[in-house]
Design goal:
Blueprint (H helix, E strand, L loop, with lengths): L11 E6 L5 E8 L4 E6 L20 E6 L18 H14 L5 E6 L1 H12 L4 E7 L6 H8 L3 H5 L1 H9 L10 H8 L4 H17 L7 H7 L2 H16 L8 H4 L9 E6 L7 H10 L4 E5 L9 H13 L3
Parallel strand pairs: 3-4, 3-5, 5-6, 6-7, 7-8
Antiparallel strand pairs: 1-2, 2-4
Helix pairs in contact: 1-2, 5-7, 6-9, 7-8, 7-9
Length: 314
Amino acid sequence: MNDFYPDIEPYNHFLLPVDDQHEIYIEECGNPNGQTILFIHGGPGGGCSAKDRRFFNPEKFRIILFDQRGCGRSLPHGCLKNNTTTALVEDIEKIRNKLAINSWHVFGGSWGSTLSLVYAQAYPEKVKSLTLRGIYLGREQDTNWTFAGGGATRIYPDYWQEYLNCLPEGAAQGTVQAAYKVMIGEDKALAMKVAKAWSIWEIRCCTLIPDQKFVDEATADERAWTLARHEAHFMFNKCFLSENQILNHCGKIKDIPTTIVHGRYDIVCPYDNAWQLHLKLPNSRLITSEGAGHSSSEPNTRHHLINATNALVD
């Protein structure tokens, strides 16, 4: 099975001012003369990691990674002001223009798939292909599945109860709106406690086989702070999308070659998200990652994603 490519370091990295407050961290890796591919991370608020460079053959790709507003190495850290889906889409265009790229391949998973799709629908002529994983369509029903006592909580009721136990009012605060209010409140210690619990709940649901090391790495305090607060911020605001926006606008991207990889047993973003997207993009290729959940690191999913990126340059 295809495994990650070896660790690599960026040959260039910098901060790009995108408004009067936010600066976006950007890095370039691999072959400066290769096919350009943009990696869009999940969350919102997840940030990029060294592992994210390793889905791509570094001899054939010019790999562009960036941390979205307020997370990872972007500044100011944790900032939610002027942090919207439209702003993130325009940041991507600013990156493309800054690097003088005419068009590029786009790769995104989870929230990264959402942002990839919205970007492609806004700028279809700039996108050579889409490689998407763990589809999240940004609808209220998709948020409720995971964070409002929906289906995920019926599959992992023990994990969900541990999350509720960290809320001051328990189950009475078990909504996105209530948790968000706490996490942006004045009590920073309580906000951090809830952010940590939110992140642990989600990340524990990401892999089919429990993986404590994966949970620990993804929920360190700094990562948990931006992951939970950014996610709640976007979900509270319905991801700054109109009702069913992504599926309704699929006609704009019907001619972009698209590969969708989705875990059969994805509890964070259920498989029907990928299925519905595939039906709206009949020329897309839907690959079911059997024996896998939501994480891009699970062996079957990793295999399919690396196969998909290799196919772009074969």
